[in-house]
Amino acid sequence: HMNRALRTASTPYFKFISWQAMGLVHQMKNELDRAYSAFVQSYETMPEAMDAQGLNNLANAALIGEHWEAAVEWAVLAEERYYELLRNGGSPQIFGDHFHNMVLSNRLLGEMQLKDADAARTTFDRLQFERTDNPMGVMIGATALAFLIWQNDFETYRATEAVLTQWTAIDSASALEVMG
């Protein structure tokens, strides 16, 4: 049925949405490579229709599929789209607290997998270490902590320990619930 929807889509936007739906179906079936391909196809159909959240989701899907360079590229695009939203008067809260940190976290994970220590340090240094009750804080905190361990950076760990401790203590079940 989805292939028919794609063949008969009357507008580029309907084709964009159809690819998104196909990606979700593949994701629910745990066909992660096919889901990622469908989400990429959605973007390629109508790039301007994908918001920062969709681009960050692509970064996350690329990480899951071990497409490290693509993950970094999607995270960069997500951040650019996020800043475009802000320049056009949009609220930073539209995607929720710490969205920017979530984008940077995905980028950082990709850079670490690529073993690009300089880029990873630059990305890490851009994280905003503020206390939060956001369930995604646990994931951001785990990524930040993994980076510090990878770099054997005890000094920065000590400087950020209070926030990292708070982030990593957030209920991980809540984080999983938010992710679906």
Features:
180 residues; 74% helix
Question: What's the arrangement of secondary structure elements?
Answer:
Elements: H1 2-8, H2 12-28, H3 32-45, H4 52-64, H5 68-87, H6 99-113, H7 117-126, H8 137-150, H9 154-169, H10 172-179
Describe the structure.
The protein is mainly α and 180 residues long. The chain has helices spanning 2-8, 12-28, 32-45, 52-64, 68-87, 99-113, 117-126, 137-150, 154-169, 172-179. It is elongated. The model has no long low-confidence stretch (mean pLDDT 86).
Alpha-beta content class? mainly alpha
The rounded Rg comes to 17 Å
Helix count, DSSP H or I runs of 4 or more residues: 10
User: Taking all residues together, what is the mean pLDDT?
Assistant: 86
Low-confidence parts, pLDDT < 50 over ≥5 residues?
A: none
Number of strand segments: 0
Give the fraction of residues assigned to helices: over 70%
Q: Please write the string of helix (H) and strand (E) elements.
A: HHHHHHHHHH
Percent in strands: under 5%
The dominant shape is elongated
> What composes the largest sheet?
none
Separation of termini?
25 Å
